Amino acid sequence: MPAIDPVFAVALRGATALLLLRAALHKVRDADGFRSALAGYALLPVRLEAMAAHVLPALEFTAALLLVGPKTARSGAALAAALLGAYTLAIAVNLVRGRRDLDCGCGGPAGGLRIGGGLLARNALLLAATALCAAPLQPRVPAWLDAFSILGGIAALSALHAASEHLMATAPGRAALRARS
CA 106, CA 95: separation in Å to the nearest integer? Predict the structure, then answer.
């Protein structure tokens, strides 16, 4: 994998860490809702659902923390990729089963995001981003002005993710409105 600019890497790691932190907090705040969403996937034995509902947010939080540290970023990216890969596989299995009316369990600004092809595409992009989080860095010393680029990059990537989730969550309502006109 080619080396990437350290400013881009830090912004991407920061945005990915924020995404994972937000996802973990959502799962912890609505533990019963997350456990219900997890059960809806029908992939785990019932006796493991409660444990998974506690372990997954802890792993997301751990991945977020690891991504922030320059020396632990690769471990954080690997853990984030493993989580995203597992979530993507769970979505794909249920889509193949014909089960499209499942809450993804990921929270989001609109809430109640249903699984579908858009979620698979989003997760594919997030998996690519986690791969970039583990890429080697170009040898360059960041300047103090790079802090503005990093913060702007984190804000822009976070806003892009929130907007994509909102669009996916509101797509059924928009389709219903179009069908009426």
Answer: 16
